[in-house]
Amino acid sequence: MDRVHFLVNHLHLEPHPEGGYYAETYRSGLQVHTSVGLRSASTAIYFLLTDGNFSAFHRIKSDECWHHYEGDTVNIHVLHPNGGYELIKLGKDVEAGELQQAVVPAEAWFASESTGQLGYALVGCTVAPGFDFADFELAHAASLSKDFPQHNNLIRRFTRV
After folding, report:
1. 126 has which bridge partners?
2. What predicted TM-score, i.e. pTM, was given to this entire model?
3. Is 134 exposed, middle or buried (0-12, 13-18, 19+ CB in 10 A)?
4. Measured on CA atoms in the order 8, 129, 69, 20, is the torsion positive or negative?
C-alpha cells in the first residue's frame, strides 16, 4: 500500500463521493452550450480505486472516456438505458481482451472496481462536455433495481444507499 499512499499524496487525491480518490487535472476554459446549461468543453481527472473499495453506480450527462495508467485491471459495469449490460475490462493486458481506453456513454449507469493482486488501479477519466457535479447522479439501490430488475444482484453489490 506504499504505492497507494504515494499516489494519494503526490497527485493530491481526495475522496470521491462515489468511492475511490480523485483529483481534477484539467478543465477547459472553452465553454459550450448544452441542454443543461454552459459546461467546460472537456475535463480530466486522475481516479484511484483501492482493493476492497468500489465506485458506486452513478451516471452523468456526458460521455466519459477512461484511460488505464497503472495497477490492477478495472472492471467497469455499465447498465445502458435500454436495459443492456456491458462489462468493460480496463487494463494493460490487451492480449486478454483488456482495453487501455474505453468510453462509457452519457446517461448510462456505471460502477467500477479494481481487480487483481496489486491492491489498486490508477486510471484517468476525460469527460466531454466537461464534468459538473450538477450532472452527477448517485444511484439508490431500490430505484435502480426497479428500473433494471434483471441486474438486481449487481446493483446491490455496487450501491451504498
Report:
1. 44, 65
2. 0.94
3. exposed
4. positive
